[in-house]
Here is the input.
Amino acid sequence: MLYLRSKRSQEKVSLNKRTVLKTKRIGHDKRISMKRSRAVAFFCFFLVVVFSGPSRSWSQSSADSKLVEAAKKEREVVWYTTTSLETSKVIVDQFQKKFPFVNVTLYRTGVAPLTSRILLEARAGKHEWDVVGGGGELFVPLMEAKLIAQYRSSEAKMMDEDLVDRQGYWTAYTVTPFVLGFNIKIVKQQEVPKTYEALLDPKWKGQKIGVDTSAGVLHALMPSWGKERATAYFRQLAAQGPTPTDGTSIIAQLLSAGEFPLAFGSAHLFELLNRKGAPVDWLPLEPVVIRVVPTMLGAKPRHPNAARLLYDFLIAKEGQEIIKSFNRIPVRKDVLPEPPRLLQGYKRVIMYPELYKNLPATQQLYNEIFKLK
Here is the structure.
């Protein structure tokens, strides 16, 4: 197994005659020394909430025997991903335990650098990766460059149809619902707005409602509501004087700390804080915007059969249980999130990867509405 990450903060170590690149814990000692700081202590608590999981025991799923035999001959697969290193390493370890004849090369980085790497490799005539997964922003540039192949995994039959591309270019392997979180010490549950329109009540004006600086929710609502209605709503919301904040993790932290009484953010982050005893709960405002995190097959994979084997594993029951164990939301009907209401019991609209093509224009509109730079 070869673990790769962006060049910063890497070191080589020898392990069982294999070279493994491990991420240095830059600043670790410094963080330890700063634990007396209340702000850092809270942030450490938040990280523990996000990355701690239950004891791990995953079910075994069967794989197509012909595909397995073909993958044995290839002996390798290359996976590019934006999934956290903690999660992706466990996925690789479990995949290799099940298929020890396939060595996995893992490269993990952010969406922007990963997109740039893939496109630069393609321009140079190189096709280093077999499977790619991560933020939906990856899809459009790779699709336009004809770097994604069609593949409909047999495992997709255990998923809702709106989480699988009809043409077979992508399949979700986790999702992020955007909901309304609230601080239970500040807002009583019976007072929490139950609809988008209820947030426009004059009593919430100037109350520092947390909203993301990303236009994703506005963009996803446009196909459902229509551009005119969606834009008008967000202009009314902006008139309430909310507080635009960069990133759902920070939004969740500030909500827990009492900086926001209400906030739009990621359901799984709010739920994790609630589970750990933080004064945070959440409600779905219908339709709930669901952001898809897709997995995709390379158009020119060097290891096509091993690639399909890994792709299947990611959305198979075993792979989805790993996703769930890291406090993310699985997508299979037989692997429910904890609690199930994270993905059930409400109407939803999907932020399909294809929608990112026109997101820059919506982002410009959103910046104008909320007076962002």
Observations:
- Residues 38-51 form the longest helix (14 residues).
- The first strand starts at residue 2 and ends at 5.
- Confidence is low (pLDDT under 50) at residues 6-55.
